């Protein structure tokens, strides 16, 4: 659907190791769909979803297809990136094209891995990156205000209103605050401005706390300080050990779970990041289930049935008649489509039906 997650961080924080784990891993339930690299710095990754395996137990399909999400590896940023340091402008431009930021933060000590700032300090590292994003937004917003000034003089429609919100936002950014904390971020005027400029500091952020093996079982002081900081700013923290995640590549679910249990962790941090990113992008999945395949289809939360059908084929939307819908829970409870029908759990829904995450659907259409 063209929605992607940009992975950012300072050099030597584990960002590339995390990305390597994403690009090399493959889903044990769906050997036909590996996590595959489509460009040197991009990866299409399957979204873990145990519901598909449960559907497959009933349908016994030839294959399983998961929903997917795109991750973009963005080279390590440094102080001065907004001014071009370390080819920063190019990398900031890459971030601008993504919808969500995964900020990998180093939360472990290792004298063999040099920290670009001399010592480990998660909050300082975050603020370095955040400052560069804000500075880049200030520069871009300044150019927009220059353009709006000319439009105001020419009495262009909506120019005065746009100019007012732009100046208020500039004042906010100049105070060192991100666009995501702007008081008027829900106003239509701000949304229009952000849609055009794709403000870096307005993007949703997930913090990936990269720890060593010892840090998996219990939060170390670095992770504790990061969680406290993130709670104040309303962001989510997901703990992972990037080094261990790389070692999971090729392991079965059972082997990986046993490995994690031995380390005192309940689940893979990488899988949690993937699922969280999917949710933060406001995406959900509906399912189709047949002997050819059991498949998850990715749509935006809130889409109506005809629009949801279009991800299978545009003709499904164009010639939409109605949708046969069974909730996931009913499909499992009654052992499949026939059992759900017999118990009155299959519904016929029309064009105004808003698809729910986990719906098992079949579309009727005529072109």
Structure summarized in a few sentences:
The chain is an alpha/beta fold and 367 residues long.
Please describe what this structure looks like:
The protein is α/β, with parallel strands linked by helices and about 375 residues long. About 40% of the residues lie in helices and about 20% in strands. The strands form 3 sheets. A 7-stranded mixed sheet has the order 2-3-5-1-6-7-8, sandwiched between helices. Strand 2 and strand 3 form a beta hairpin. Helix 4 (about 120-155) packs antiparallel against helix 5 (about 160-175). The radius of gyration is 23 Å and the shape is flat. The two termini are about 25 Å apart.
Question: What's the SSE blueprint?
Answer:
Blueprint: E1 4-8, H1 15-24, E2 36-39, E3 42-46, H2 50-59, E4 63-65, E5 68-73, H3 88-96, E6 100-106, H4 122-153, H5 159-174, H6 188-197, E7 204-210, H7 214-217, H8 221-233, E8 236-240, H9 242-247, H10 253-262, H11 269-280, E9 283-289, E10 293-300, H12 305-309, H13 314-318, E11 320-326, H14 328-333, H15 337-342, E12 347-349, E13 360-365
Parallel strand pairs: 1-5, 1-6, 4-10, 6-7, 7-8
Antiparallel strand pairs: 2-3, 3-5, 9-10, 11-12, 11-13
């Amino acid at each position: 659907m063209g929605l992607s997650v940009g992975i950012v961080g300072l050099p030597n924080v584990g960002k590339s190791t995390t990305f390597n784990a994403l690009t090399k891993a493959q889903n044990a339930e769906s050997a036909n769909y590996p996590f595959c690299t489509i460009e040197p710095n991009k990866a299409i990754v399957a979204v873990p979803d145990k519901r598909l395996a449960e559907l497959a137990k009933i349908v016994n399909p030839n294959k399983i297809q998961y929903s997917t999400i795109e991750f973009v590896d963005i080279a390590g940023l440094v102080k001065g990136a907004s001014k071009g340091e370390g080819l920063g402008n190019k990398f900031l431009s890459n971030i601008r094209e993504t919808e969500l930021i995964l900020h990998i933060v180093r939360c472990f000590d290792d004298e063999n891995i040099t920290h670009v700032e001399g010592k480990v300090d998660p909050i300082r590292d975050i603020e370095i990156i955040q400052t560069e994003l804000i500075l880049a937004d200030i520069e871009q917003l300044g150019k927009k205000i220059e353009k709006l000034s000319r439009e105001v003089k020419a009495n262009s429609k909506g120019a005065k209103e746009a100019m007012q919100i732009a100046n208020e936002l500039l004042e906010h950014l100049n105070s060192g605050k991100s666009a995501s904390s702007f008081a008027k971020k829900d106003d239509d005027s701000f949304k229009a401005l952000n849609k055009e400029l794709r403000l870096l500091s307005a993007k949703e952020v997930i913090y990936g706390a990269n720890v060593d093996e010892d840090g998996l079982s219990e939060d170390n002081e670095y992770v504790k300080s990061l969680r406290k900081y993130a709670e104040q700013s309303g962001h989510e923290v997901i703990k992972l050990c990037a080094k261990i995640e790389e070692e999971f590549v090729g392991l079965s679910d059972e082997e990986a779970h046993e490995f994690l249990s031995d380390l005192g962790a309940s689940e893979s941090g990488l899988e949690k990041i993937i699922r969280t990113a999917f949710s933060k992008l406001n995406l959900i999945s509906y399912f189709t289930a047949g002997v050819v395949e059991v498949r998850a289809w990715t749509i935006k939360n809130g889409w109506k049935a005809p629009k949801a059908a279009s991800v299978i084929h545009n003709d499904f939307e164009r010639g939409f008649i109605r949708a046969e819908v069974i909730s996931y829970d009913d499909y499992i409870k009654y052992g499949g489509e026939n059992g759900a029908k017999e118990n009155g759990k299959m519904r016929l829904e029309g064009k105004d039906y808003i698809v729910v995450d986990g719906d098992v659907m079949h579309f009727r259409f005529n072109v």
